[in-house]
Amino acid sequence: MLAGSTHVTPEHVKAVAKPVLRHRLLMNFNAEADQVTSDDVIDELLAQIPVEGLTPGEKRKMDEVVEVTRRERRSASSEGLVVRCIAARRKR
Q1: Global pTM?
Q2: Phi, psi (5° rounding) for residue 25?
Q3: Strand runs (DSSP E) across the chain, as ranges?
Q4: Which of 2, 21, 27, 64 could form a disulfide with 31 if both were Cys (CB 3.0 to 4.6 A apart)?
Q5: What whole-number distance in Å separates Cα of residue 36 and Cα of residue 12?
């Protein structure tokens, strides 16, 4: 989980883009002469890539699905713990 989210957002991608991509770019002589850095190139790439956002209704639906999934996982985890405790007691 990144920053408490259960899914990746465009902001997450932007936050890690420079550290992840910076070392993958090599500037040629012209770029160095013009003082263009890899960060400049990454900024330009991020600015040009269109980002499709969720509508408020889609975001609510996504949040509902995530919450239901969390509850189901917690419930399954709790049920598994109870089953393991019962099995351990029977072994004694």
Answers
A1: 0.53
A2: -105, 135
A3: none
A4: 27
A5: 25
